Structures are given as structure tokens and as C-alpha cells.
Structure prediction request, 397 residues.
Amino acid sequence: MKRIDRFPLGARVRLADLAVYPYPIFAELRAAEPVTWVPEIERWFLTRRDDMLAVLRDPDLFTTDAPSTIRDMFGVHMMTTEGPTQIRYKRKCLPPFHASRLKTASMPPLMAEVERLVATLGSGGRCAGEVRTTVARPVALHSVLSVLGIPLSETERVNEWYEHFARALANFAGDPDLRAAGKGAADAFGEAVAPILEGLERDPNGSLLSDLMCDHVDPLTAEEIRSNALIILFGGIETTESMIANAVWALLSHPEQIGTARSSREALDLAIEETLRWEPAVQSAARHATRDTEIRGIRIAKGEVVHCMLGAANRDPAHFENPDRFDVTRQNAGDHLSFAVGRHFCLGAPLARLETRVVLETLWARCPGLRLDPDRPGAPYGYEFRKPATLWVEWGV
Prediction:
């Protein structure tokens, strides 16, 4: 039997529909075709949480170490390797994301930058402003450039490169122009970073690039530094910007729950986890089968790509009660897979959580009566990277 006949629901899946609102589609697949073939992109989709956990925790059978769009764009790095190489890369890049470094090196400038950006929205009387491009994106850029050790004067260029990266990495249709633009941006980043690396000195509380360049025990090559810096740069912008915007949108869409979320630090942290579960910034994690295998009796051939649909895992009723309901008191909200799981768990998750909390606390403190602007509605959009195109809010009298 042809796959298109064997998997009729998968055959009807369209990226354009997923971009608008994927969760009813995921629910239908999860119930009837939890392992399905999607002809539009010629890849397998998984929609049950347990299946995804099994795949993501088995890098020997389901690997990232294979030709892929992300490797084509950024080269060999911690997200496109496995085993000792992947562990080495991740350990080398981890120190700036430790809690102690975030508290001492990242927290003060982050708070100052968020205060500055929120102040630009306006004050006094009835005010309105657009949060995603005015706050979320600049905060993400500022933080990741600071962690990497790239001068903030490069912000505008990095922002332009990022746009090319995002379009190229979501280019499942294989548009050659999008690929070329993305690779050109990656090359431009490498050229810009080279002189920065040459001038760095060791600083125990300094940047990631400083740590890597001044490591004389087991140093990475310049190309390895470039590739790993690129994936951190992209992830630090995309995941964090979208996480902040989605969290603001989710909470303001449920104003009756904001008081609970604001009641304590612990309550806000739990609310942030619920926003991550309910509307994740990244919708899938791709893995390549290293040999012929089966999932739920469905044969997966060696080399085929399996997409773990993280947004579907986060709304699996087998693990989350009433999963389509947004509930800031959900005690197992932190079981979401929005940062993936296993060896490829997101390196920057602690920083992204910190940035989101600081933005929410500052918005609530500086913008009394904060609410969505009913005249300019927006909602998360995107089949791979998901966030509102615009997020207009208003506050005051």
C-alpha cells in the first residue's frame, strides 16, 4: 500500500494550516495516526509525547549527526553532532549559562535594558505599544550578544542576518534563494567575528567567545567556535523572542489568571512554564534514523527524518489533563518538551526563562492595567517557529 493511502490524515497535513493553528490537527493525528507520513515535506510526524521521549532519548538510533538544513546553514556544532563531540561542544559553551554567571554577569544589564525598552513604550494616561518588535526582539538580541561577547554596535547587522537564518531554517520546501541568503548571512557573521576573536583576552566572568578563545587546554578550532556561536546566536534570538512574546500574549489573553501568576515568584515561574507548554516557540525537533526501525509497528527506513512535534507532545491528554486549557496553576506544566529533552536540551533555557520573567515583571510594574489592544489583535503564527507577527498592548486609563 502506498504511504499516501496508508496515512490519509498525514496526507492532508499542510504547513500553511499548521502555521495558523496546529493543535486540532495534532489532536486528530495523535488519536488516529500518531505516527504518520506527511507527503508535503516527505517526513514522519510523531504526535504522542511518549513516542517523542523515546526518540529524543535515543541518539544512537535517532541522530542529529546527518545532513540537514541546520548543518547546511551553520556547519558542525552541538546541535548537529552526537557522542563525545557533542558533549565536548556543549560543555565548552555551558559556563556563561550557569546560574551564578547569569546572576552576576547577565542580570544587572538585562534589567537595565528591559527598563529602558519598556520606557520607550510610553507613560502616563492611556498608552499603547507593540511588544514583540519593541521589547522582545531587542531584549533577545541584547542578551545573546552580551553572552557571546559581540559588541552591541553589531545589533542591526545581527538582526538582519537572523531574519535570513530564520527563513532558511524553516525552508522545508528547499527554496534555493532562501538557502543562499541564509548561507550568505552565516558567512558574513564569520567574517565579522574573526577580528573580535583575535582581540579577546581571558576574563573569568567574561563572554563565551572569550572563554573559547582563551582555552589552551582543549581548544576548539576557529571554525568550531564560529559554528557553535552561530547556533547559540540563532537560538538565543528565536527561542527567547518568541517565548517572551508568546508568554505576554498567553497571559494577557487570560486576564483572569494574571493575579495568580503575579502572586509570588514561584507562581510566576510556574505560569511561565505553562506558557511554554501551551504555545511553544519551536514546534518540532527533527531526528534522522540511523538504521531501519519501527515506531508503533510503523517501519521507519534508515536515513528518513522523524519530526517530533513538540507542540503536540505538550498537549497530549495522556500526560496533561485538559491540555488545551491554559492554566497557570498546572503543577506538571514543567513537563513540557519545548526545550527538547536529553543531550540536546536547549543550552540557553535558563537565560530565556530569566529574560521572560524580567520582561513580565517590568511590564506589569511600569504599565498598570496592561491588556491586549482590542483594535489590533494578533496571535502566534508559524509551523516551525511560532510567535505573533505583532503584539499590540495598551494600559492606563
